# Entry
Amino acid sequence: MAELLNTTDFRAALEDAIKGREAKNASFSKAWANGELSREHLARWAENHYHYVGPFADYLAYIYANAPDTATDAKDFLLQNMYEEEISDVRHTDLLIRFAEACGTTRERVMDIDNATAVTRAFQGWCYAVAFREHFAVATAALVVGLESQVPSIYRRQYPVLIERYGFTEEEAEFFDLHITSDEIHGERGYQIVLDHATTPELQQRCLQLVRHGADMRFAYTKALYDTYVAPDAPVADPEPALA
Amino acid sequence: MPRIRFETADREVTFPEGDEVNLLRVAIRHECGIPFRCASGNCGTDRVRVLHGADQLLPARRRERDRLGELYEQGYRLACQTYVAGDVTVAWDPDQREMEASGKVYDRLRQVWLAKDDTAGSPGSDG
# Structure
């Protein structure tokens, strides 16, 4: 039976739970960072990514509702995060759509979930289910530590490439610039909430399990983008003969 | 290892050589007391004055420069927007509040909250 981990060991375990599953190492992320994608590929990414991050404030609202009024620090963080997603400045989904339009697609195509892969739809459903059903510390571990805290490491590789190799303007790529820094802070505060409120061995172990699942989901979602949109376009070195 | 000195809190934190770390994230993790509210470079509550090691900070991007305005030229940075690559010392006013809201933020809030005319007292308004 698991024992209660001290704060230092629990934090290390949470960080370890992401290792080996980082979305920055998925095939689509690598191709992006290497400048190997076309604007059409990036448009398809935006059409999918909208359906993962678009409802992020909804996910957080479920977690907020599940948090007791004694968890003031956690509730304040969740509310601030929702506010920043939606109305503190340009709505984050509008920044994403601005990038999508610069890639050549349209707001209508981005918002139409029929343009997302089945894996993206499953990813969105998993986020809703975890937010709705799990203890607030566990859901925070899954969505903030497992997913949101990965963002700076992904976008810090991708943003410079967007400007320098793909030729986007800073304004067109503001979605990425904003999240590099904001998700540093959101991720750190997410760790704090999990460390402070997962106070039993069972809750700690469930947090670790859901961080692993979250990282797995983000990796699978990112890999599916490559498999769906990039691989069919990629040159095949030694193609097998077509079946008769 | 590179060292960040949080002068106002009389605290120092080291980080691995070769890393580039977010200043506010380090401060939060190690409870060094830099005040903050948002994490988007909007509120300006986390402005710090760089006492030493400004050359060890990654250059400010447009969002941070725009928000700080003249303060940027006076040696201030927004901790949430700042990445550190080497030895640096920062200080701040522990009682400081957010900077005057930028016009962009107010415009957005006006758009959201004042979209409906709530002065007419019409039936059905959810005043």
Notes: Residues 7-231 of chain A form a domain with the Heme Oxygenase; Chain A fold (CATH 1.20.910.10). The CA atoms of residues 6 and 57 of chain A lie 31 Å apart. Chain A has a mean pLDDT of 93.
